Amino acid sequence: MGRARPSMQQLIRERRRQGFVGRVAERAAFRANFDLAPEDERHRFLFHVHGNAGVGKTFLVRQLEQIAQERGALTVYVDEAVGSVPEAMAALSTQFARQGHRFKELDRMLAAHRERRHAAESAAVAMLDPEPGPEAQSASPTPSAGSMTVARAGLVGLGLVPGVGAFAGAIDPAQLAQGADRLRALISARLGNAEDVQLVLAPERVLTPVLLKELTEVCAEVPWIVLFFDTYERTGPFLDGWLHDVMTTDRHGDLPANVVVVTAGRPPFDTARWGGLADFVTDVPLSPFTESEARGLLADKGVVAEPVVEEVLRLTGGLPVLVSTLAQARPTDPDGVGDPSATAVERFLKWEQDPVRRAAALACALPRRLDADVFRAAVECAEEEAEGLFTWLRALPFVSDRGDRLQYHDVVRAPMLRLQRLRSPRGWEERHRRLAEVFAQWRTEAEGARDTEDARDTEGGRDAEELWADERWRELRLAESYHLLCAGARTALPAMLRDFVDAVGNVGDAAAARWAQALVDAGRDADAQDAARWGSELSQALADGGSADALGLLLRRAGFDEPAQALAHAVRGSALRHGGAYEEALAEYDRAVALDPGLARAYRSRALARGGMGDNDAAVEDLDRALALAPDDARGYAMRGEYRRIQQRYEEAIEDLDRAIRLDPTRDFAWASRGATRLSRGELDAAVADLDRALELNPDYVWALARRARVWRALRQPARQMADLDRALTLQPDWAWGACERGDVLRVAGRYELALADYDRAIELNSEYASAYASRGVCRRAMGRHGAALEDLDRAVALNRAYPWALCQRAVVHLELGAPEKALADTDWARSLRSDDALILTWRGRALDALDRFDEARAELDRALELNPDFALARGFRGTLLLRMGLYEEASEDLNRCLALVESEPEPEPDSGPGYGSEPESQSTSTPTPASASTSWDGAGLDRAAAVLDTLLRAPGTAQGSLAPLLARITAARDTARPPATA
């Protein structure tokens, strides 16, 4: 027998227990959506609740959340507590974990993001280069059309460089776009740790695919997932575009169809963005209750006396939050309605007879947010009463309860605050001062500081950077500052403005925006006009031009003392530098050190700007000064070590990196840089160990993967090299350098079609990537497509006029096309750039040989072999030349030695080599290292040597004793030669 259906009375009682009357149609539409499969055209993927303050948006969201949970959905809730897309992802991950679904990879990536944000200056070291690289050098000074379009559109962003709008009005748009183009090229084509830069500048590009992957796994286990984004008027500015991309494009991956999104905020949806998606969106506009709905809610709560009902309707204007609040007390007596001085707050609490509860409700309006600890600090009551009072408070209709914190509805909190401030100004100040002292005590405990006379100036055993990285410490400091402002403390506003600078410098714009919002809130709540004006103007400056504009505003008007001015200039310099405006950044750093010669941060940051402009000597000088001022700064030693590595000052680099690791063994950047340094010194096993350690600390460290791939290449382990590059490109699929590097590996393995696909992808990502054109040209030559190869190599040389490897490769094509004069011209050009380079000298010798200029050709090949006696390519070319010169004994020695070298190197290495092709950053050497100076002696070279020998052996009078065996050996080598990778 089936289960009995519930009675009408049971259903009515159940619905009444839900505590909500009204919004029947809205709730019904949401509930019915779960009965429609995602494939049903009537199913909606997005609900947007909107309306003015007090209409019950959050209250309705709670009801929708309950409905979703009843239908078996996992739900998560995000509100204005988050200040950025990564923080929203962190909130999602935390709430999924509470429901038994951990997003392990996302959590790891978020931790890496936070670390990179706090160590952004170290991450930026990888942008340094001793000379402009091939990717950054364009034959044309004109910025890309895309960059100019964005610049003209307000400079609000540029590819991987958000915050470019900070320079609007400060410099010429064309100048900005040119600098941003250079930065984009560096990020996409040269930076080995570009994923770190992405995590700092565009974290959603890295994090969103990870979120979607793990969300998909959870969606396979549950019928529905519902994501609630409340107070969207505050979070929408940074979440809306991201949410639109996630839901409507495949830019970040697939979003499962059993995900439903609910947003709730004051304004309606942006029709320009969402207007074309009406078939997938349900718009839920909310208005105040009708009189009938309000009366229904009051009646449900037992409020039926007509005079009382009329008074409630008059006071609330039908706003659900106020109707619910007054109904909660079940008033029966309208006494005092005629008192003209009565306020809405007094009416809210009029029917609450318990004075302790009344006092608690008012006291708890003072903090912007509260939990049980803040409740005890705000409410003066016996400990045994606290728990019961807190339980009562969190059940009030105007209190938003998210489990770990409570927050009053603005419509109720604002008049409560106004009532207390006007009724007792001294009591208002005293209560806020007491709360400030409590938050100061908690902040001091959080930072591990000893008690001092002024706790605000103490940062205890942790340095400022570490403290600002601690989100809880920041929230405590912000709460303390808010209450000091409300208490009217004379030093509170200057201190908050100073904190704004620290928030930008140590955390970023999202944290600074919270400081600006706290100023707005304190100005409104305490009627502090100066604070309100500063908060409003800083918020607007951040929105319009980013932190550089906001800091400029502070420097012009805040009246900082010299140390504070110095810090603000240094932080503003960093904001400009991150956008590629190096000249403007240098000016800011110069002002900083002029005001405060002891500010180590300014020297350290200026080093990055100078390095970004190619002046590495000056950068090291600045780091010398910074380390003299802060001798235990691990980051400073890591940075100087990286500069010295790039300058090829390897011994000094190792000393600095050793020191950095001793000071901070968890600094993955230092381990990776030391590994790269050891690679450059040929210490391959030690290099692997260091890079392994960097990747243990940060498994998704793309720059370290790229460097380790280079070590695997030197160790002739192409499978491991490919695995690291594949992993790097999985983490960062739009990484042009990684695609080009993998293409080189595939090309050397003879997998030309796959290599071409990678080169095409690299060029798609960066149309001015000279190395990708050069490598694609070599690949096309190997496939016999000489015309296309010349086009690519011409383009590479046009983009970078100082690109010797591309010139050498073009010379190879000219030789194969029978144009030795052109080949000689290219090698002459290359030698003017690098006078003592074995590869250049070898190909110049080959061109001279083709022109029958034997003595000059031998001189070039002799010099190449002085530089690298085991360079098989030079041995083979000289041996063939000596045959033509009739020097058979010497020729046999060279050719036999060449063949021995070929046989000892069964896996030819990529021929781009340090300083020639696509490097994460330049570490050029005067001669190719053994890893990069591969034999390059393939079927073409063997064919030519065999042809010369065969001709000689057929000529009368030629001594054949040593030549015949040599021809047999060369013929055997040619027959087993692999497909050529180089000429």
Task: Give a short summary of the structure.
The protein is mainly alpha-helical. Among the domains are: 17-101 and 221-285, Rossmann fold (3-Layer(aba) Sandwich); 118-192, no CATH class; 291-351.
Structure description:
Among the domains are: 17-101 and 221-285, P-loop containing nucleotide triphosphate hydrolases (Rossmann fold); 118-192, no CATH class; 291-351. With 983 residues, it is mainly α. The longest helix has 29 residues, at 529-557. It starts with 7 loop residues before the first helix and ends in an 8-residue tail after the last helix. It is built from 48 helices and nine strands. The protein is elongated. Helices cover 64% and strands 4% of the residues.
Distance N terminus to C terminus?
85 Å
Largest sheet: 5 strands, parallel
Q: What sort of overall outline do the alpha carbons produce when their principal axes are compared?
A: elongated
Number of helices: 48
Poorly predicted runs of 5 or more residues: 119-192, 336-343, 449-460, 906-935, 978-983
Radius of gyration: 35 Å
Q: What is the structural class?
A: mainly alpha
Please tell me the overall pLDDT: 80
CATH class designation of the domain at 17-101 and 221-285: Alpha Beta
- How many DSSP-defined strands? 9
CATH topology category name of the domain at 17-101 and 221-285: Rossmann fold
Can you tell me the CATH architecture of the domain at 17-101 and 221-285? 3-Layer(aba) Sandwich
CATH superfamily of the domain at 17-101 and 221-285: P-loop containing nucleotide triphosphate hydrolases
Query: How are the strands of the largest sheet arranged?
Result: 2-5-6-1-7
Measured by DSSP, the beta-strand proportion falls in under 5%
Fraction of residues in H or I helices = 55-70%
